[in-house]
Amino acid sequence: MSKITKRIIDRIKPVGDGKEQFIWDAGDGALKGFGIRVKPSGVGSYFVQYRNQEGRTRRLVIGRVGTLTPEEARKQAREKLASVSKGNDPSAERHYIRKSITVTELCELYLKEGEGRIKASTLAMDKSRIERHVKPLFGSRSVRGLTLEDIERFQNDVAVGKTAKPRPEKGRSGVVTGGQGIARRTVEMLATILELAKRRKIIAENPARGVRKFEGKKNQRFLSTDEIVAFGKAIRDLEAEKKANATGNAAICALLLTGCRKNEILGLPWDWLDAKGRCIRFADTKSGAQIRPIAIAAVKHLETQPKRKAEDGKPIRWVFPADRGDGHFIGLSKVLERICKKAGIEDVSLHILRHTFAAVAAELGFSELTIAGLLGHTVPGVTARYAHVPDSALLVAADRVSSHIAKLLNDKLASAEVVPINTARA
After folding, report:
1. In the beta sheet, which residues pair with residue 290?
2. What is the distance between the alpha carbons of residues 394 and 386, in angstroms, rounded to a whole number?
3. By C-alpha distance, which of 139, 126, 30 is closest to 78?
4. Domains of the chain, with CATH numbers?
């Protein structure tokens, strides 16, 4: 016998008696316990054989002949034997990992435990990310076998679009394309899920901790004074040309007049609107249930929306109903795109309308605390009344901000005195 080399491997042939054959590393520079197992089919695999601390013989497959060179396999075998000398048992650890809970099983456990404890909207978003990104990329992997490198590779794969596919939801179009933002948020969710595995003692350490996540981009864009004026004119021109969607335009204006998030306006039922109290009583938002103060101008705008009935005669509960069916309006991005094209404005998303509301409030001299209350942000260390009660100071602030924006949107009031918005300031 001699040391395993490429020449030795090239001479390997099945013995022909239906039995496996073992070729051991021997001679000068050989590694004790390193060898090749050849199956009757002729397929060979490198392995290392050793005794664990209990004196039991273990055999660990390293890789297939042809995939690894003899030197590469010998190097890995030497590393495994070094681990054995420290009291470890690589073969038992591999079997343990293979039998452990999978990433898919852990995600299902997370979703089940989250019911009633995690906000329904958050849990729905987590489920969507699990189905779209986590399961396709490594749902079948063992949780115990995950490493930090695996999580970082997963983040890159999501970012470059390896999980991109058409949206399956009824009424929605387009493709889920990934991107750094969704990749970062999915890794953050995965870190939370893996923390559950750590609490359950499935893993000793969370492999997602310490991952170099993509940095979030702070969007500093908002509409300037001139852009808000052009925005309002474009809406009126489209209406005059009968090219406008009345419900969509009204929802766009509601976003500007309230500073609400897109889904807070589109999913707004009539029974959440408290016109007398001048607030929206949200049962659920990104920050939880809360009462959001809104201006008189915003209340009047919302109240002017027609109340429609479904085909069965029952009233539709949404302030901004869909054009067909009994759901709420969903095609707002296309409405915004049409308005911006008419106004000659670029680089505007629906969330920028919320930024615009905040920017106007800042230019009118309101503090960050007041603006946070108007937007429904949760501010650590701040009295809860700013986030959940229509405080009189917040109502005054809402009136000033909304009336200012309304004047800019409406050409009949465009000559009224307004405070210029500094487009260089976020």
Report:
1. 282
2. 8
3. 30
4. 6-96 (3.30.160.390), 103-199 (1.10.150.130), 225-413 (1.10.443.10)
Tell the residue number behind the tokens 């939801």, with chain if given. Answer: 169
Can you give the pLDDT at residue 418?
44
| Contact present, 426 and 359 (Cβ < 8 Å) | yes
Q: Specify whether the CB–CB gap between 148 and 139 falls below 8 A.
A: no
pLDDT value of position 286 = 65
Where the chain has pLDDT below 70, the residues are: 1, 96-99, 166-178, 216-219, 285-288, 378-390, 411-426
pLDDT, residue 377, reads 82
> Read out DSSP for 297-310?
HHHHHHHTSPPPB-
Dist CA 183 CA 244 (whole Å): 36
Give the model's pLDDT for residue 168. 52
Q: What residues does 273 pair with on adjacent strands?
A: 280
Nearest partner of 351 among 242, 256, 235, judged by Cα: 256
- Which of the 8 DSSP states describes residue 413? G
**Which tokens go with 93?**
């650890």
Q: Which residue in the block uniquely carries the two structure tokens 């509301």?
A: 357
- What's the pTM? 0.57
Q: Cβ(224)–Cβ(424) under 8 Å?
A: no
